[in-house]
Amino acid sequence: MYSQGLIGADTATKETAEFLAEFQARIDAEEKIEPNDPMPQAYRNTLIRMIGQHAHSEIVGMLPEGNWITRAPSLRRKVALLAKVQDEGGHGLYLYSAAETLGVSREQMTEELLSGKAKYSSIFNYPTPTWADIGAIGWLVDGAAIMNQVPLCRCSYGPYARAMIRVCKEESFHQRQGYELMKSLTEGNEDQKAMAQDALNRWWWPSLMMFGPPDSDSQHSDQSMKWKIKRFSNDELRQKFVDATVPQAELIGLTMPDPDLKWNNSLNNGAGGYDFGEIDWDEFWRVVKGHGMMNKDRIRARKKAWEDGAWVREASLAYAAKQKANAA
Ligand code: FAQ
What we know:
By secondary structure, the chain is mostly helical. Helices cover about 65% and strands about 0% of the residues. The chain has 13 helices and two strands, in the order ααααααααααββααα. It is globular, with a radius of gyration of 21 Å. It binds Phenylacetyl coenzyme A (FAQ).
């Protein structure tokens, strides 16, 4: 997607007060920051952390759904699921490329994922024991991802913002196929309806956790919003997601697993919205710190894929060296 000439380059910038003020003025004027532009090291590091985490999430996120490709109940469902999982792999690749424009290599990012230094989204540490989980992931997980990523299309860093445009279009298709799958189950027999409700019960709260800790505990939000990397806070996006999703559940006859869910006319500056129950933040931090149900399996699978693919990387490098030698 972009030149990788910046990997390992000396990108240090003299961060005088004047430079920082000029940089902030560019951000405030809604100018896009591009790979060769000078930028504060902290801006660069924030983006490397966030885009890297996002890329890892897309790649690890292929695993829970990949689990069902061979067992999809019809050819139509198998084709849609296969295409969706493949799309997520593509998103990971655009995002690794976007991060590489900041001077970090994909190898480095992968090593940080495998060593546990780099994070990926908490949501992918939950298991997918039933077919309805595939519907719930598309509907809720892709739904939450879109809510978070549409504002990222306006992120101040050009390569990330541009990558997000296509990603959001594809996530939108994923959300619809998931919701349609859930709708079909709710129109089926009692067992199928119960399977859909059970999947909603298990995925609802973890989906709300995807938006990150409450604003009061979000260490990066203030600075990221000042730099216009983030456009909305974690709690603002979570509220938008709840307000959009509750009516969708009602439409297909499913019940949200939250007894405290209640319409409140005074939310959203008087436009109304839903009050919802307390999120179990202890569970969130347990999962983020590596103690969720599937953390070990996920990293084991990624480690195996990285090791099994070593020969492909070596062969590509050998081929590139041969081409270069032939050209010379
Ligand atoms: N899981 O200060 P904040 C998808 C960490 S893609 C794990 O609020 P920030 C597509 C955070 O990193 C889903 N860790 O952080 C798909 C930080 O730790 P650090 C991924 C989390 O960055 C669908 C600490 O907590 N999307 O689903 C989580 O300002 C279906 C403090 O947090 C993106 O990555 C979490 N949920 O806000 C694929 C979007 N939340 O790094 C397959 C881009 C927070 O200091 C199938 N990222 N943490 O060690 C973002 O928008 C932001 O990074 C947030 C967090 C909103 C995730």
